[in-house]
Amino acid sequence: MKKRILAFLLTAVMAASAFAGCSSKGESAPEGGQAGSSGAAGAGGEAAEEPYDLTFMYIVGGDYPDQAEVEQAMKDLALAEVNVNLNIVTVPSSYENQLMLMLSSNEALDVCPLGVQSNVVSYVANGYLEDLGPLLDKYAKNIKEVYGDEMKIASMGDFVYAIPMNKERDYAGGIIMRKDILDGAGVDVGENAEKLKTLSDLTPVFAAVHEKYPDMTVFGGDYAYTPASIHYGRSIDNLGSEFGVLLDPVNDSTVSNWYESDKYRERVELMREWYLAGYVQKDLATSTDSGTTQMRAGNLFCDFDLVKPYRDVEAEQATGFECVVFNIDEPIKNMGTVLDGWSIAHNSKDPERAMQFLDWVYGSAEFNNLMNWGIEGKHFVYTNKAENNLIAFPEGINMDTVGYHQNRGWEIPNQFLAGIWEGNPADLWDVMTEYNSTMKKSLAYGFLFNGVEFETELATLNSVREKYVYALGSGSVDPATELPKFNEELYAAGLEKIMQAKQEQLDAWLAKKQG
Amino acid sequence: MKQSSTLPPERKAQRRRNKLKKWAPAYLLMLPGVVYFFINNYIPITGLVVAFKKYRVDTGIYLSPWVGLKNFEFLFATNDAFVITRNTLLYNLAFILVNMVLGIAFAIFICEVSNKWLKKIYQSAILFPFLISIIIVSYIVFAFLSVDNGLINKSLLEPLGMDSVAWYTEQKYWPAILIIVNTWKTVGYSCILYIAGIAGIDRALYEAAEIDGAGKLRQICSITIPCLMPTIITIVLLNIGHVFYANFGLFYQVPMNSGALFDVTNVIDTYVYRALLKIGNIGMASAAGFYQSLVGFILVLVSNGIVRRFSRENALF
């Protein structure tokens, strides 16, 4: 009996652990269409030649019933206008593994998006991507019109790895506040605008709100979104990772440690002050509910978020409250947003044709509309085409019944050509273009740090950062004791080595640019 | 054995054939399991080499260049190595101990319940948390511990006039919280194993003890626990093999990934996840897995060796 029970137990546990040990293997990417008949394609791209079979990958936010129909429309358009037979591969936004497999396995792939989290450096090092430099010189017309001198900005050394997506060129930070609460507390930001310059000027505003609405959370949101936790913007250039940054990127190319800077210390101290005063959501260090969600729920006065022109309109649409945006950072053009872009895979049978197609996409309003909003007349309509670019749902269609509606403008090549959804200002793209073109530029704009040799250090630095940055950034621990410990552990994890390497690579890049 | 060695060779072969014939259906039954284990658990072992390589997708695992022990460096690069090893080992040992003691206790209680329906209800109730996703568990815990709206702060500490506690930034409470949560979640499972063990004990032993005048406590100490010993040892040995694998969800989700708690919640699995999430280096992740398996393997051998010394028939091998 004893033996039998033992045997039974063993089997049960073994079986259980065997199932637990099962890990899902990476699924093989779907079979792409065979690219062929391109051998004869000449450089000219004349209408007389055979259509080129081109595999085009793009990101979709979800499954829409009319996906196939939209794809057919995209195919028809591409065939008619650039003589290309599109084979469309749609991927979810976490598509990195699939892209890596397709790039590495010689599968048919011509044009693909690169995401912010993509391992661009290793793609380039492993030779997965086509160098777009010479192709741009030869074929860029629309792209040149959009970007001018900056069309080759997404490069590593001389190797151009991507064409950036058309959007804002820095993710600057700001505080988004509910206007009705401001009015209720008797704070007139419009009137006091000249008094509010820096972040610490908000303290009296928070105090007034806290006094008038004691039950309301004054500052809250997602743990990664506080002025001290965020890893975008801040008027610095983080050179691709948080370890070794340019504190004054417009004037000074010295690589320094952000977490030792006065600016960072001031921000964590201010967060601590707010936290102790009771303004900050107590669970902020672990909160995963975005400020937008909390504000919509009605008990949050303000949150920190990335801002751009007309952010207040966007905030009002998302939260249902009229909002005031207080900009804390001056935006500075840096590489952070340029890592999102469109590339041509090394697998491409004919990169020249792929570039011609991509250049056409950057000039085709219709194609960008198809990618983002679907088919005109069925999924969206222009409300007043003669006047402006505004679009809306057709009669009788709404968010729940529409067959295709991506609304992911930041992931399509050129959203500035596409329609602007109703409710946004009609001059959105003009203002955005102005915003980008007047933005100051980091000295390192165009520089990409090659950290392939430092993966051990970057891994340990990441884990040190995770340990401190959100606790400090939410004000829930005392910076007087924790900040020195944080920096000590960063240096122990090899920060100096990364900073040195960044400085060396940056200096070499700057020298080359000069010469 | 002695007998068979005196038999002539042809008889021996005959016996072997007979034996094979007799056991053939059993082997056949075993076959799918063996094939499964071979494909799923043994073939991938060769992939361990990736822990010693700089993995390149284009060339594949076996043609990637060797890098020696470089992938292991990050595990030991900072003094975190000590913290995560200590946390992993101590928490798991505490879990094994608490689960064993409470598991046996609950198993005995449940077996003593004479009403069949109540017994089933208790048994299911205690198993229920085991079936809940750890994400949901983490939010149940959050409902208790939330600073702004949590049950403990709002309904217990504040009405009693005590200061509320910022649970997710105070390290000192977490060893206890994690042990309580883990016990609540998993004790039902080990309890079931022990109930199966108790069900297998010969009732005649209890009847004899009762006649001899032994009380309930005496029966438990002298019959139930000694008879459960093989089950206990098996379960503990199997758990020790996993002592270097932490329950990722428990250590990552339940403390809400709060940085201020890392000193008491960081275990190997969470450390590796946090360090490599942004880098995606397969070689380094495999190195961590390899290190865990190696330590687990050694621990199983050592503890089995100890068991064998003291009670040979209870050892696994």
Describe the structure.
Chain A: Keywords: Signal. The complex is a heterodimer of chains A (515) and B (317). By secondary structure, chain A is α/β, with parallel strands linked by helices. Helix content of chain A is 39%, strand content 13%. Chain A contains 18 helices and 18 strands. Residues 16-46 of chain A have low confidence and may be disordered. Chain B is flat and about 80 Å long. With 317 residues, chain B is mainly alpha-helical. The mean pLDDT of chain B is 86. In chain B, helix 3 crosses helix 7 (174-199) and helix 3 (80-112) runs antiparallel to helix 9 (216-241). The chains are: A alpha/beta (515), B mainly alpha (317). At the A-B interface, helix 1, helix 3 and helix 16 of A face helix 2, helix 7, helix 9 and helix 12 of B.
Q: How much is the radius of gyration of chain A in Å?
A: 26 Å
Strand content of chain B: under 5%
Overall spatial form of chain A: globular
What is the CATH homology-level superfamily of the largest domain in chain B?
Answer: MetI-like
Subcellular location (chain B): Cell membrane
Protein name (chain B): Aldouronate transport system permease protein
Family (chain B): Belongs to the binding-protein-dependent transport system permease family.
Keywords (chain B): Cell membrane, Membrane, Transmembrane, Transmembrane helix, Transport
